C-alpha cells in the first residue's frame, strides 16, 4: 500500500507546462467564442487568482486582461500588496475598489449591523457577491468575460459562495487540485510567498480556510483524488490516506450538500 506521501507525490507528478498550455488554449478559445475583447479577474493576492491571471496574460496578452483588487478594511496588508504586485508584474490594467462602503450601504438599507456576530456568514457571503457584481459591471462596461479563480479542491467540496466567487463565466484552473495549483504557480515564476500562502477567503476578520475545511489541502487533495478520480470507497480512502473514517465521511458530506452549487437550480415539471 502506498504511503500518503507517495500518493501526494503521484498527484503532483503532472506535466505543468503541458497543463499551462492546455489552460491557455482553453482561455483563448472561450474568449474568442464569446466575442469579448478580453477578461476581467478578481485579484486577492492568493495563489489561485495569481495563477489564473498569469495564465490569462499568457493566453491573451496583458492588454486584454483587467484585474480588480477588492479589499475590505480587514484584508491583510500583505494580500493587497501581493495583488497589486502581481498586476504590475503582469503589466495588466488594474483597479482597486474598497468594498466596505458598499457593504455598509447594504447594511444601512436593511437596518442591519455589518459587524454583528450573528450575521457574520450572511455578510461574508454578501461581500463575495458584491465582488461578483463589480466584476460583471466591468465586464458589461468593457465587453469582457469574468474569469473565475476556483480550483478543483474547492469545487468538489463546495468551498465557495454561490453567486459570489462561484458566479463566473469560466474556470480555467477548475481541473487542478489546490496542491497542483501551488506547484504550477512556482512553474510560472510566481513568488513562493504567494504560491504557498495559506488559503483564506477573507470574508470576515480572521477568516482562514483551515478553520472550515476538514483537512489541510495537502491531505484533502489526496482524499479527493482517491474518492473522485479513483472511485475508492470510504474505508479504502481512510486506510490509504491515513485519516479517520469520519473525516472522509465529512468530505463526502460537504460534496453532497454542495451539489446545488454545481448544478442549475431545480426546475418544476409541468407534465
CATH architectural designation: 3-Layer(aba) Sandwich
Number of domains: 1
What Rg do the Cα atoms give?
Answer: 19 Å
Shape verdict: globular
Task: Briefly note the structural class of the backbone.
Answer: alpha/beta
CATH class: Alpha Beta
State the low-pLDDT regions, or none: none
List the helices and strands and how they pair.
Blueprint: H1 4-12, H2 16-34, E1 38-42, H3 47-60, E2 65-69, H4 77-90, E3 93-96, H5 100-110, H6 120-142, E4 144-146, H7 152-157, H8 178-187, H9 192-195, H10 217-229, H11 234-241, H12 245-257
Parallel strand pairs: 1-2, 1-4, 2-3
Helix pairs in contact: 1-10, 2-3, 3-4, 3-8, 10-11, 11-12
Overview of this protein structure:
The chain is of the alpha/beta class. It has one domain: 3-Layer(aba) Sandwich (Rossmann fold). It is 53% helix and 6% strand. The protein is built from 12 helices and 4 strands, in the order H-H-E-H-E-H-E-H-H-E-H-H-H-H-H-H. The chain has helices spanning 4-12, 16-34, 47-60, 77-90, 100-110, 120-142, 152-157, 178-187, 192-195, 217-229, 234-241, 245-257, and strands at 38-42, 65-69, 93-96, 144-146. It has a 4-stranded parallel β-sheet with strand order 3-2-1-4, with helices on both faces. Helix 2 crosses helix 3, helix 3 (47-60) packs parallel to helix 4 (77-90) and helix 10 (217-229) packs antiparallel against helix 11. The longest helix is centred in the middle third of the chain and has 23 residues, at 120-142. It is globular. The N and C termini lie far apart (52 Å).
